[in-house]
Amino acid sequence: MNTTTPLLAVRGLRVLIGGRHILHGVDLDVAASGVTALLGRNGAGKTTTVRGVLGLVPRSGSVVFDGAETVGLATHALVRRGIGYAPEDRGVFASLTVAENLRLAERAGGTPDYARVHELFPELKHRERQLAGTLSGGQQQMLAIGRTLLNGNRLVIADEPTKGLAPKVVTEVTHVLERAAESVPVLLVEQNLAMVRRLATRCTVLADGRTAHQGPAEALLSDPEATRRLLGVGRARTPGVPGAQKKAGA
Q: Which keywords describe this protein according to UniProt (predicted)?
């Protein structure tokens, strides 16, 4: 695919849950390389957008992935097309070992790249016999991201990967996603604007279930008035990532 053509192009995405409109027509482009950030205040609709893209909630509109319309496809069909998802709650199987969690993520007909996962996350190799439920929050996040990198996905979606993590672990996760993005595009939903500044080339901001802004990440984050208006934050230091700013709303 031409790198100037979005790998994922969302147009007019609407989600209706329990008779209530959550998304009112979201537009989102995810570049075919690097990191694209999805930002917004609490309740803006970021996680619902991701779930809508993946078909995990009822949706309408257009979701074109790798040149093909995917609205109407089941989630498992989208995953087989090469989308890896690390959810906000990490979604590890607590009663299974690290190795078993990874084995469950193997895609039929493919060759799982354990060497890549263990290179990025040596801790997972060391703890492969440990129950996932006994891992720290940071280790569980590494397992969640590791599963998405196992199958040579075309796109990785990471939803709030640093949520609840200690500053040192935030730095580690940032470094891993930076390395992963060298070979696979990443859609990053994140509160830590320092992480976004370091990783993202482009960003989309949601407000009240609609797209409020799309453009270069650096242009937005270097504009204090725009960050206050769109994200409700100003400049401040945030632990965990060098050059950090205050967190935006979820």
A: Amino-acid transport, ATP-binding, Nucleotide-binding, Transport
* Rounded Cα distance, 123 and 128, in Å: 8
Domain parsing of the chain, residue ranges: 8-231
Per-residue model confidence as pLDDT tens for the chain (250 residues)? 555 799 999 999 999 998 899 999 999 999 999 999 999 998 899 999 999 999 999 999 999 999 999 999 999 999 999 999 999 888 899 999 999 999 999 988 889 999 999 999 999 999 999 999 999 988 999 999 999 999 989 999 999 999 888 899 899 899 999 999 999 999 999 989 999 999 999 999 999 999 999 999 999 999 999 999 999 875 434 445 544 433 333 3
d(CA 14, CA 58): 9
Report whether 46 contacts 53 (CB < 8 A). Answer: no
* Close Cβ partners of 125 (under 8 Å, ≥ 6 residues apart): 118
CB 38 within 8 A of CB 206: yes
**First vs last Cα of the chain: how many Å apart?**
32
Whether domain 8-231 has CATH 3.40.50.300: yes
